[in-house]
Amino acid sequence: MKVLLLNGSPREKGCTFTALTEVANTLNQDGIETEIVWIGNKAVQGCIACLVCRKGEKKECPFDDGVKVFAEKAKVADGLIFGSPVYYAGSNGTLHAFMDRLFFANSTHFKGKPAACVVSARRSGTTATVDNLNKYFLISQMPIVSANYWNAVHGSCPEDVQKDIEGLQTMRTIGRNMAWLLKTIDKAKIPFPEGEKKIYTNFIR
Q1: Residue 94 and residue 8 in contact, taking contact as beta carbons nearer than 8 Å
Q2: Each residue of 114-131: pLDDT tens digit?
Q3: Which of 17, 77, 145, 164 qualifies as a cystine partner to 116, CB 3.0-4.6 A?
């Protein structure tokens, strides 16, 4: 089994990476393979609602800036974890654009896969960011992995995060709970429900 972790910070080895590493190490101790993918620090195109991923010949996003490569890894992973620094009580813009396109084009492949987010902040805005990121999983029928507190670490640098002993414990709890859920799903061998065909409505008809 494998969990794919996305480091959404523009800083490759910063606070978000430190948090994700704590989760990954715990997963590894439970026998789960992990891979941390860095989003990078270059611009990521936002979704333009062109619908090429829905109606095009290849059924994939036309932009090539790392989203498609990650999507192919995510399709075969057993669990997904997304990490973000907190910008104005929300995820950073690059990650937001990345996830908009990733989930709009590929969420049908993510049904039933456990997911979690982790966030990093100097001080506050963490719970609002967690709420925002969890919505990607909720709408995609993905079980959300819980912890023993909000999924956050605090600090202005990796050395600060290493001192946040409660935050690091929360990261380890996410890792253990993710491993438990993955093993439980694997042991049960119960296929994910097919569900009904999606019904689309709006507020005027």
Answers
A1: yes
A2: 999 999 999 999 999 999
A3: 145
pLDDT > 70? residue 205? no
65 C-beta neighbours (distance < 10 Å), count: 17
CB contact set of 76 (below 8 Å; sequence gap of 6+): 2
Read off the tokens for 5: 């972790």
Give pTM, 2 decimals. 0.95
Q: Judge whether 90 and 128 are in contact, CB under 8 Å.
A: yes
| C-alpha span between 142 and 135 (Å, rounded) | 10
As a whole number of angstroms, the distance between CA 31 and CA 18 comes to 20
CA–CA distance, 28 with 34 (Å, rounded to integer): 7
User: Which one, of 88, 107, 84, 105, lies nearest residue 96 by Cα?
Assistant: 84
User: What does the pLDDT look like over 36-79, one tens digit per residue?
Assistant: 999 999 999 999 999 999 887 778 899 989 999 999 999 999 99
Q: How confident is the model at residue 181 (pLDDT cuts 50, 70, 90)?
A: very high
Cα separation, 12 vs 37, in Å, equals 9
For residues 104, 107, 109, 115, the Cα torsion angle rounded to the nearest 10 degrees is 140
